[in-house]
Amino acid sequence: MTGVTEQTEYSADLAGVFVESVRNLGATVEVIKKSPETLCVSLQKATDGEQFVLLADPDFLEPELFDLFRQDKRVVSQPTKEQLSTIHAGVTDAFCGVASTGSVCVSVSKNLTSPASLLTRKHIAVVDAGTIVQRPRDVFSAGSFSMKNLNRSFSFITGPSATADMGPLVIGVHGPGELHIILLSGRDPHGV
Amino acid sequence: MGNINDYRIKPRQVADKAVQGALQEAIGLALDVETEALRHNTQTFNQNRYIAVQKIDDYEDLKQRARNIKEESIADLPDLIGTLTKTIEGRGGHVFLAKSRTEATGYITNVCLSHRARLVVKAKSITSEEIGLNHELENAGIEVAETDLAEFILQVSKEQPSHIVAPAIHRSRETISELFKRNFNTDLPLETGEELTRFARDILRKKFLSADIGITGANLIAADEGAILLVESEGNIRLTSQLPAVHIAVAGIEKIIRRTKDFGTFIELLAASGTGQSLTSYTSILEPPVELPVLNLNGRTDSKREFHLVLVDNGRMQMRDDEDLRETLFCIRCSACMNSCANFQAVGGHAFGGECYTGGIGGAWTLGTTGNIDKAKFAELCTGCSRCVPNCPVKIDIPGLNAVLKSRLMEHSGGPSFQQRFFSDFSKSADIAAMAPGLVNWISNLPPTRAIMEKVIHIDRRRKIPPFANRTLSKQYLQYRKADYPAQGGETTSSVVVFADVYTNFNNPGVGMSTVRVFDRFGIPVKLSRVFDDGRGAQSQGLLKDASKRAGELAPYLVDLIGGGDEIIVMEPSVLSMFRRDYRTLLSNEPQFERIAAHSFDPFEYLEKLTAEGHLEINRHLNITSWNTRHIFYHAHCQMKTIGAGNSAVDFFSRLRFTVDTSNVECCGMAGSFGYKKEYYGVSKRVGDDLIDQIKNALAADPAAVILASGTSCREQIRSELTVPVYHPMEFLEQLLA
Question: Best mutation site among B221, B232, B241, B278 for testing chain A: the one with the most A CBs within 10 Å?
Fold first, then answer.
C-alpha cells in the first residue's frame, strides 16, 4: 500500500467515528463531496427559512469553496453591529474535527468565525474530513495546530450549548442551540 | 423537605465555619432543605463520571501524566510565572501578580475604573469568590453581571456556591422557579427548565451586548505560549472573553503549567472527571489579547483589545512550602471528590464547605487561602472513606489532607477532645471491657450511661453501642485449637495469619473464627496473630502521631510474619486499607510499607488468588444446592473498593452460581466512629438511607435474599434500620459449608 492510500483508509475510519460521535451529542452531520456546488446545496438546505445568514470568511478552507453560496442574497459577510447581534444562523469553517468526541475546532481569529459560531442560534460548521484526529489531545500535536499561519486561539465545539443549572438538561443557552456539521470528503461520501 | 427560599437560616449566615455553631447550623440547613436536589445532581455527575472515564482507554496513565505535569509545574512555579509574564507582555497583554486578595481586587477595580466601566460581565470563577471581587467592584459603583446560569441564580438568591463546578447544585427547578417569580416582575411562565433558561438568557444577552469589560477565570494557563484554557457548556465564557474589548482573567498561580501542548492531557480528564462528559460544549484555548477585531456591540469606540491576567497568590506560595498542603495546588477543580463523596452528596458545600471552597479538597483550600484553620472545620465531614482517591484526576490523597487538617484543628483547639481520645484509644477501653463484657454491655446501654456518654464524649444516644463479645477472638481461637481442631499442615505451600484487629477481636470474634474454620476446611494452614491496634482509630480522629506510633509498633511484627512465609488475612476493611494505603505515610518507611501492602489480603481476595493460581478448588468442598435462595445482596466497604478488593466476594459467590447484586453507594455513612458522633448522627443516618433503600428493594424482590457486608460499621448501620440478618461474607460461607 502506498502512503496516500493508507492515509485515506485511516481518515475514512475516523470520519465514521466522528459522525457517530456528533450524532450522540444531539447535533446533526452530513458528509458531502468537497466542491462549491455540493457545499452550496447543503448550506442552502441547512439555512432554509433563515432571513439572513452570517458567513464568516474561512480561516482554513479555501475561500473559493464558499463562492457559490456567497451569491445567495441572504448571505451577509460583512455584518453591521445590528446584524451581528441579531442574525440567527452562522456559517463557519473548522480547522479540525475530533473523532472520539465529535468536536470541531473553530478559530478565534481576525475573521468573524468565533462570533458567527457563538452569537447565533444555529451554527453550521464546515470541516474537511482529512483533518479529523482521533482524540482531543491529538489536536495539540496535529499538523494543523502547529501551522504558522493559523491563529492559535480556538474553541473545541462539542455539540450545542447546554446547561443543567435550572434542573433538567436544557439545550441552547448563551451559545447556539443547534449545531450542524458538514463534513467534506474527498472520496465518495456514501463510503463513510 | 422544606423550602430553601423560606428557610430560617440563609446559607451565607453559616458560610464561615470558624463561627461557633455554624457547621451544625449548616448541616441542619442542608439536611432540611437541600439534600434532595444535591443527591440527585451529584449522583448523576458521579454515575456519568464512571461511564466517561471508562471510555478513556489510558485513564490511569493519563492521570499519572497529569499528576507529573502538576508536580513539575508547582516545583518550577517561580520560573513559570516569569516565563508567562514575558510571553503575555511580549504580545501586548498585562500581567499582575497579586500577593493578597486586596491587591488583586484593587488592581481589577482600577482597570475597570480606567475604562469608565459601568457594567462588567463575569464568567464563573471560584478564585474571584475567594478574593471577594464582586463586592469590591460594586463598592466602586460598577455593576457585575454573573453570566453562568448557576451563578446568576446565586446572585439573585444571595447564596454562596455549594459546589465548585455547579454552584447552584443544591437547588431544584422548583425552588429556582419560585425564586425567580419572587424576584422578577414578569408575565412569562417560569416553570420548565427551558422557560427558566430562556428567561435568564434573555436578561444576560442584554448584559453581554452592553458590557464594558469581561472577567473570566482560567482552568489552566500555559507559560510557553501564554495561553489560557477555559472550559464551559453554556457559551458565557466565550462571550465574556470575546465581546467586550477588555478581558481580565483572574486565576490562582497554581493554574500555570509549562506547555500549551500539555492542555491535551488535561482536557479529557477535566470533562470526564467533572460533569462526566467526553468534552463539555466549549473548551477554549485563548492566546489573548485575541486577534478578533473589537466588535463594540456595546456602542463603545474601543480601538483595540486589551488583556489583563491577574495571578493570585493569596497564600499559595506558603502552601507550596507546606509539606502537607502543597499537594492541594495540584487540584484542577474538577469536583470529582465532591460527587463521589457520600457525605457531600447528602449535605453539599453549604455544610461541607466554607465561604467559597467546598467538599473534600475544600478544607485545604480554605486553610491555604485564609490562613485560618477554624474556617476549615468542615473537613471533619471527611470520614476518610477514601472514595475520592481513585477518582481524583491528579491523584491527590484528599483523605490524607483532611487527616492533617483534623490534626491541626485539634492542636489549635488545645489538644484532642474526650471524644477524639475515646475513639483513638478504643483498644484500651476494649481491653478493660473484655474483663467483664456482659457487665460493660449492660451498663453502657443504660439510659443514664448513654446520657453521660452523650454529654462527655458526644456519642449519640440513638446509636446502639456494639456489644463486646463474651469471649475475645484470641480466647476462642486458643480454645478451638486446643480442643476442636489442632493446627495442621495443609495442601498449599504458603500459610496465612488471620490478623486479630481490635474490632474483630473484641466485638466480632465470630467473623474471625469463621475465617479460621473455613480456611481449615479448605486445608489452608492458618494461625491467628497477636492482638494489635493498627492505628486506624487514632488516624480517623486526626491523632496522626499516635497513629504513626501504633503503625510503627505493628509493622515489624507483620514484616516478621511475612518473612516467615505467611500472608496476612485482614477481616476488617478499614484495617486492610491502613496496611495497603495509609501506612505509606504513617510508616514513612517505603520498603516496609511495600512489603506489608503486598502481603495483606481480604479473605476472599486471598481465596480468589489461590483459585486463580490453581491451588484451590472450591466446588470440591461445597454442597450448596440445598440453600434456599440464589440471591445475595452485597455491600462492599468504601475503603475496600478504593484498594481494589471490593469485588472479590462478588466474584467468589458468582462462581458458586449465586446472583450477587451489589450496592452502588459510595459509603454506608457510618464510617467507623463518624456515625456515633452526636454532631454527625443526622448526616450519617441520611447517607445510610440510600443503602437501606437498596437493601429493601433486594428483599422485596426476594425476601430470602442474603444480606452481606464486609465492614463492621456497615453492618451496624444496616442493623440500625433493618431486622434482617446481616453477615460478613465469611460467616455466610461457613454456613454454606456446614
Answer: B278
B173 and chain A in contact, CB less than 8 A: yes
Task: Pick the residue from chain A with its C-alpha nearest to B200.
Answer: A173
Nearest residue of B to residue A100, measured between CA atoms = B278
Domain that holds residue B152: 4-316
Three cell numbers, residue B418: 474526650
Quick one: fold of A3-186?
A: Rossmann fold (3.40.50)
Smallest CA–CA distance from A163 into chain B, residue: B234
Strand partners, B216: B249
Q: How far is B168 from chain A (nearest CA, A)?
A: 7
In this structure, is residue B404 part of a structural domain? no
Residue in A85, A149, A166 to test binding to B, most B beta-carbons within 10 Å: A166
Q: What would the grid cell of residue B342 be? A: 457520600
Q: Answer yes or no: do B297 and A85 touch at CB < 8 A.
A: yes
pLDDT band at A144 (very low <50, low <70, confident <90, very high): low
| In a domain? residue B577 | yes
Q: Strand A122-128: give its sheet, edge to edge.
A: A28-33, A178-185, A122-128, A89-94, A53-55, A75-76
Interchain proximity A153–B285, CB inside 8 Å = yes
Q: Is the Cβ pair B242, A158 closer than 8 Å?
A: no
Q: Chain A contacts of B200, Cβ < 8 Å?
A: 166
Each as own residue / partner, the long-range contacts of residues B100-107 (CB below 8 Å, 24 or more positions apart, any chain) are B100/B313, B100/B314, B101/B130, B101/B131, B101/B132, B101/B312, B101/B314, B104/B131, B104/B133, B104/B250, B104/B310, B104/B312, B104/B314, B105/B131, B105/B132, B105/B133, B105/B136, B105/B137, B106/B136, B107/B308, B107/B310
Considering only the beta carbons, identify the residue of A101, A114, A174 that sits closest to B204. A174
Last residue of a domain, one of B268, B286, B316: B316
| ipTM of this complex prediction, to 2 decimal places | 0.94
Beta-carbon contacts of B703 under 8 Å, excluding residues fewer than 6 positions away, are none
CB atoms within 10 A of CB B297: 18
- End position of a domain, from candidates B290, B316, B342: B316
Q: How much is the pLDDT for B619? A: 76
Residue A143 confidence class, pLDDT cut points 50, 70, 90: low
Which chain A residues are Cβ-neighbours of B236 within 8 angstroms?
Answer: 173-174
Q: Is the pLDDT of residue A149 over 70?
A: no
- Tell me how far apart the alpha carbons of residues B552 and B586 are, in angstroms, rounded to a whole number: 8
User: Chain A partners of B47 at a C-beta cutoff of 8 Å?
Assistant: none
Sort out which chain A residues have CB atoms less than 8 A from B277's CB and list them: 158
CATH number at residue B55: 3.40.50.10420
**Vertex B14 angle, CA B13 and B15, to 5°:** 100
Percent of chain B with pLDDT over 90: 90
- Residue in A with minimal Cα distance to B240: A174
> How remote is the C-alpha of B472 from its chain's centroid?
35
Residue B287 in contact with partner chain A when CB distance is under 8 A:
yes
Query: Measured between CB atoms, which of A136, A162, A169 is closest to B267?
Result: A136
| Residue B406 placed within a domain | no
Interval B58-110: pLDDT, tens: 999 999 999 999 999 999 999 999 999 999 999 999 999 999 999 999 999 99
| Residue B374 half-sphere exposure toward CB, CA atoms < 13 A | 9
CB proximity B149 to A under 8 Å: yes
Does the residue B420 lie in any domain? Answer: no
Decide if B278 and A100 are in contact by the 8 Å CB cutoff.
yes
Residue type, B235: G
pLDDT in tens, B595-625: 999 999 999 999 999 999 999 988 777 766 6
Q: What are phi and psi of B426, to 5 degrees?
A: -55, -35
What residues contact residue B603 under an 8 Å CB cut-off, 6+ apart?
A: B515, B518, B519, B569, B571, B729, B730
